[in-house]
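Reading is simple: the token line describes the chain's fold. The lines below illustrate.

. . .
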Amino acid sequence: MTRWYAVHTHPRAEAQAQDHLHRQGFATYLPCHARTVRHARRAKVTRAPLFPRYLFVGLDPEQGRWRAIASTVGVSHLLCAGGRPLEVPAAVLDALRTREDAGGLVVLDDPAPFRPGDRVEVATGPFDGQLGLVKGLTDDQRVVVLLGLLGRAVSVELPLDRVRPAA
């Protein structure tokens, strides 16, 4: 009976490990999400692993083939305890799969209470009480706000907990 297990990969080698495991006949699952990458004033949406350095492999541990996983290209090790692989509950993977869109990307909840163009007030810190407009959000739970400072609009990146909706 096939069960699911977590595989720890080398840095940025999830796809490589998945490919080599698949070639060996293992079922694999690498949940990915849409990630915005900014470089040189350009933003590009890319496909990124939901759990960096991890992927899931389906196998029957009684067959004994699971030891070959550790020597697979791109794989660091299979998560084990007491010399046996640690099973990932099927419900976890099912929950991830139900959140996938048509392109196979896991859709994450939007934790940010702000959208670009929203008026906000800085709640704490050196810009306490300043009003501004939300310019955007970053991947690391920060908000970019345009504040009027010294007669011009200045872009400031702040943690979400330092900003509140303007009254």
